[in-house]
Amino acid sequence: MAPNMSLFSVNAILILSTDGSRLLTKYYSPPHQSSQNAAPGSSQPGLNPYPTVKEQKAFEKGLLEKTNKTSNDIILYDNRIVVYKMEGDVMLYVIGGAEENEVMLFSVLLALRDSMAVLLHNSTDKRTIIENYDIVSLAIDEIVDDSIILETDPVIVASRVSKPPAQDTVTIKNIDLSEQGILNIWEFSKQKLAERMRQGL
């Protein structure tokens, strides 16, 4: 019998503080399935097994307690495959169904960790993640969208998410706002307008 093949492979991505607080959590459900059909702990591909915040927090609390006791990078918890890494004072988790490929989930975790290292300048801690919440959230969205893995190369993810370098942006320092500068701009624009009008006639 063929396994249940689906693109919907990631159930959740969690970034939790080691003290148990949530920093960023994303639970996924495919858009064409109803989350009310599944019971908690069911392993339907891509289906969010924890639809309410109360269930999510209970799952996260138990998961954090279990992962603090083990030194592995992968565990089976609540009939889910959980791959995780500790970075500074935060725990990064990628959660998939029991039938998912562990190597694929682990590559998502490494892409998240490495892209955050690039984007946050190797300062992956609670304070930096909170200060750069938008960048971290965008990085997760570039890696996984609606539980479908899109990209696992951290350099590509970081380049799509990162802000443009400061030297490429126009700064007010480069614009001459003195009286002479404004007269120069006025003369230049009159000259260009006259040229365009002559070309158009």
Report what the structure shows:
By secondary structure, this protein is α+β, with helices and mostly antiparallel strands. The chain has six helices and seven strands; from the N terminus they run E-E-H-E-E-E-H-H-H-E-E-H-H. The chain has helices at 53-69, 102-119, 126-131, 133-143, 154-161, 179-200; strands spanning 10-17, 22-27, 74-77, 80-87, 90-97, 144-145, 148-149. The strands form two sheets. Strands 2-1-5-4-3 form a five-stranded antiparallel β-sheet, sandwiched between helices. Helix 2 (102-119) packs antiparallel against helix 4. Mean pLDDT is 83; it is low at 35-39.
Key phrases:
201 residues, alpha+beta, two-stranded antiparallel ribbon, 6 helices, elongated
SSE layout and pairings?
Blueprint lengths: L9 E8 L4 E6 L25 H17 L4 E4 L2 E8 L2 E8 L4 H18 L6 H6 L1 H11 E2 L2 E2 L4 H8 L17 H22 L1
Helix pairs in contact: 2-4, 2-5, 4-5
Average the pLDDT over all residues and give the rounded result. 83
Structural class assignment: alpha+beta
The helical percent reads 40-55%
Number of DSSP helices?
6
Quick structural gist:
The chain has helices at 53-69, 102-119, 126-131, 133-143, 154-161, 179-200, and strands at residues 10-17, 22-27, 74-77, 80-87, 90-97, 144-145, 148-149. It is α+β, with helices and mostly antiparallel strands.
